[in-house]
Amino acid sequence: MTTTRRVHCIIPPHLLDKLLESDDSEVRKAALDTMLTTTRLRGERAIRASFIGATAPGNGRRTVFDCRQGRVLPTATLVRTEEGTASQDASVNRAFDGLGLTRDFYHDVLQRDSIDGLGMRLNGYIHFDRMYNNAFWDGQQMVFGDGDGRMFTDFTGAVDVIGHELTHGVTEYTAGLAYHDQPGALNESISDVFGTLVKQWSAHQSVDAADWLIGAEVFTPGIDADALRSLKAPGEAYDNPEFGKDPQPAHMNKYVNLPNTERGDYGGVHINSGIPNKAFYLTATRIGGYAWQAPALIWYESLKASTSQTQFQDFADTTYQKAEELYGADSAEQLAVLAAWQDVGIHISGIPTGIARTRSHTARHNGGVGHEDGVAALSKQIKALTAQVKALAEDVTALKSSNALKSSR
């Protein structure tokens, strides 16, 4: 399934807007140039179909091109292929490796054959434009800027950014989530989720060891910021004079309503994505172990079952349903999903609030693979109660027999 393709950028408009207020003229210029170039790309779509066979099946083969600070992809120089050796340019190798890790993650973990599921070629373009403060997926290829060197650095340095951008392609070929408002925020969240999963999987990190950050490496060393976004703590990724405070909410009661325009981030897609991001983090940490196992499969199957206009509520309901299909009703996995969405202010449809609260409480206190799940705990309680009732019934029967005997005398 495909939809109208967009240029999906890792740096949201509100960060570039903030840089336009900088006292540093070079920073302002880089931000403005980045915004103008991105707007042109979105408007013209000329960057697509830069060479024949861009979307042809190719067993996920990687090719990296060097734009040499140019903006026209067809003129870029081929610098590395699957048959070639490592380059002396670290950006070439980072892009090549990041494309491969993302491809291998989808193949090995989710049995998906490249981005489109049909072996799509993976093409990366490095050194795009001068001081370009972004990286993007344009529907056919991945493009990396070098950053301005003051606020942002080379975008090939963050494997989760590569995973994030390529996942926009996966979303295009599955649900085709529309890029505005809640469907758009889900689109961004899915990319954040699988971006961090690529990073965690490649480093073999457990949910406890992972940092749950997106783009920690894109800032220059002098910038006081943890990352672009945090799935663990939306709204706390950064708070500094250069960028202001991270505006992401972690709960529906803080949902941000913005206009569906480019400057409005198409309804705040990079902002409100914090809500489903938090839901995934909570699900993964309650299940425990490795997030690329059960949590990833639940989210991936839910993505495939979604449509272009899927809302937060729809997606939450689908994850609950998929958790049941994959792991069973009232399994530890399903209870973790239920509790996670409830904690971000979204209640699963059809589950009465009281029951949801009770089950969520069970998930919080029993949750995690290897822990006693909610059904087992409830079963024990029922057995204990049944034994008490049986003992009481026996006492009552004995008392009645004793009274009957006394009466007969």
Automatic annotation (TrEMBL):
UniProt domain Peptidase M4 C-terminal: residue ranges: 175-346
Main localization category: secreted
Gene Ontology molecular function, alphabetical: metal ion binding; metalloendopeptidase activity
Coiled coil: 375-402
GO BP, one annotated term: proteolysis
Enzyme Commission numbers on file: 3.4.24.-
Residue ranges occupied by any Peptidase M4 domain in the UniProt entry: 84-172
Keyword Coiled coil assigned: yes
Entry's localization field: Secreted
Cellular component aspect of the GO annotation: extracellular region
Catalytic residues as annotated in Swiss-Prot or TrEMBL: E165, H270
Keywords carried by this UniProt record: Coiled coil, Hydrolase, Metal-binding, Metalloprotease, Protease, Secreted, Zinc
Cofactor: Zn(2+)
Keyword Secreted: yes
EC class: hydrolase
UniProt similarity note: Belongs to the peptidase M4 family.
Function: Extracellular zinc metalloprotease.
Name the record gives this protein: Neutral metalloproteinase
